[in-house]
Amino acid sequence: MSEQLQQRFGLTVRQARKRQGWSQERLAEAADLNRSYLGEIERGVVCPSLSTGAKLAAALELKLSHLLRDCEEA
Q1: Listed residue (4, 11, 22) closest to 59, CA to CA
Q2: CDD domains per the record (predicted)?
Q3: Among 7, 10, 56, 65, which is least packed, fewest CB within 10 Å?
Q4: Model confidence over 49-64: pLDDT tens digits?
Q5: Which CATH architecture has domain 3-71?
Q6: Are 16 and 62 contacting, i.e. CB atoms less than 8 angstroms apart?
Q7: How many helices (H) and strands (E) does the chain have?
Q8: What's the CA gap between 20 and 28, in Å, rounded?
Q9: What is the distance between the alpha carbons of residues 32 and 34, in angstroms, rounded to a whole number?
């Protein structure tokens, strides 16, 4: 995953989380992830696996394809 794509994916996750009115702690718990790892995802520091993306999407009650679509380049 390119660095730009990582950053866009992180931003997409952050925006979806904030639309839910959730803290990072709440999303991390719902997705069964470490809160610091979620922070790294949102900052675009790490490249999450598809499995992690699916966990995040399920916790946010979204399809993984929606998270990926929203972070694609225009």
Answers
A1: 22
A2: HTH_XRE
A3: 65
A4: 999 999 999 999 999 9
A5: Orthogonal Bundle (1.10)
A6: yes
A7: 5, 0
A8: 13
A9: 7
